[in-house]
Amino acid sequence: GWARAVRGLLLDVSGVLYDSGGDGGVPIAGSVEAVRRIKASGLKLRFCTNETQATREKFVKKLQGMGFDISVAEVTAPAPAACRILKERNLRPHLLVHDDLVPEFAEIDKANSNCVVIGDAAENFTYANLNEAFRVLIGMEKPVLISLGRGRYYKETDGLKLDVGAYMKALEYACDVQAEVVGKPSKAFFESALAEMGVPPQEAIMIGDDIVNDVGGAQRCGMRALQVRTGKYRPCDENHPHVKPDAYVNNLAEAVDILLQQL
Amino acid sequence: GWARAVRGLLLDVSGVLYDSGGDGGVPIAGSVEAVRRIKASGLKLRFCTNETQATREKFVKKLQGMGFDISVAEVTAPAPAACRILKERNLRPHLLVHDDLVPEFAEIDKANSNCVVIGDAAENFTYANLNEAFRVLIGMEKPVLISLGRGRYYKETDGLKLDVGAYMKALEYACDVQAEVVGKPSKAFFESALAEMGVPPQEAIMIGDDIVNDVGGAQRCGMRALQVRTGKYRPCDENHPHVKPDAYVNNLAEAVDILLQQL
């Protein structure tokens, strides 16, 4: 059923290709080979990540170091999408992001800020930095908050960490404003990944570990979506009240096995 | 109209009696004398605060230092209310609160925590502490989050600060849980203040600077409520979509003038 008439794949990265950790992370068994097999099959492929703790360059280097066949040009990530929005709307951001993400905004005018961009700032989520971003927002006549994702939390080798979505909610509540989310699960983000791949949604499959942001988001764009039982997957995801994947697979390797048999 | 048949007053403290600041704060003009006049009049009086940056002892000392006639026994505050709940339900809290509030929980068993209590932790709202509170919550089969208030922000002499409500929202979202709010605007909190005063809601008036937490909360308990134009009051509060005070007064002194004329 789910593997019919596929021309393109969107892959989530963290939790599908590798498990992240403070020290870098480790590939998930079979995933390095699975990416090679997808590329050899002639299927279109795009990596679709909400990663905002590093520039795409640095992120891709880390994955290459683990053995993955991946290049910067194949990655759809929130920061470049946010930069397009900032330029289109003449927005000058106050950045609350990870130090390593700042270079993605190098060409953006940041003087005299008229919006706040929040990413997974990790150690930069200090009391002082949150208050500062809050003051910038509350001082605007009509606060504009752009959030690079809306994830709740993620797993690192040293434990679970609050993701950008939690801090986004704090600022939303304090300023009585609704953030504009760039990144998964936003429709515009999936659509730009599909456009970059040149495949319509009905011929594409998203594979991810996040039931809401990967699976639910992709399905709302008309794509099929699989949930892997790796990364942040939890058994209770299979009873999710709103989202039901087109299929579960134990890991990326199993999904690719099934897909390639159908081709 | 609003001053008829009154037997008891509930007073918010910060923004009504004084303006807070990193250095302690300053009394609002006329408020020291207004408290004395209420006491001399024979009206029942209770101070009803969401203050959670200090024990009641320390808080009352600060107010006495400014000249206010106030004692610990006259103060209704969230931490003691939370302690009653913790004891009743055999809850052992992981505390994410201000250092100076910790003594209020001295008699509470905190080993092997089975809930999280969050207050206005201020400088204790670090990335590490928020992640730790999150991990305690997400590790429970049914997460219990008790929040000492749900304020959005407050003003100190060095600027606006995010209040406990913003951090409560972050944890609520990350854990998909609803916090139980102790303190204003919770009905149970106002009711315990009324019980301590021995006055039914229809004979009591709340006076506060917070349109939602003071005025709206008290009105939902069947009390009348005034908003003062001091503290965090903003002119746009007078167009609030849901809450309409029984009256506005410029400050506590004006409210007391009108009240005492009616007696």
From TrEMBL, chains A, B:
| Annotated InterPro entries | HAD-like_sf, HAD-SF_hydro_IIA, HAD_sf, LHPP/HDHD2
Q: In this entry, which stretches build a coiled coil?
A: none
Which is an annotated GO molecular function term of this record?
A: phosphatase activity
Any idea where this protein resides? Answer: Cytoplasm; Nucleus
Q: What Gene Ontology terms describe where this protein resides (cellular component)? A: cytosol; nucleus
EC number in record: 3.6.1.1
Keyword set includes Nucleotide-binding:
no
Q: Record's Pfam families?
A: Hydrolase_6, Hydrolase_like
> What keywords are assigned to this protein?
Cytoplasm, Hydrolase, Magnesium, Metal-binding, Nucleus
Q: Which reaction does it catalyse?
A: diphosphate + H2O = 2 phosphate + H(+)
Which cofactors does this gene product need? Mg(2+)
Q: Which domain of life is it from?
A: Eukaryota
Q: Where would one find the signal peptide in this protein?
A: none
Acetylation: present as a keyword of the record? no
According to its UniProt record, which protein family does this protein belong to? Belongs to the HAD-like hydrolase superfamily.
* NCBIfam families assigned to the protein according to its UniProt record, in alphabetical order: HAD-SF-IIA-hyp3
Function statement: Phosphatase that hydrolyzes imidodiphosphate, 3-phosphohistidine and 6-phospholysine. Has broad substrate specificity and can also hydrolyze inorganic diphosphate, but with lower efficiency.
Q: What is this protein's record name?
A: Phospholysine phosphohistidine inorganic pyrophosphate phosphatase
Q: Which organism is it from?
A: Thinocorus orbignyianus
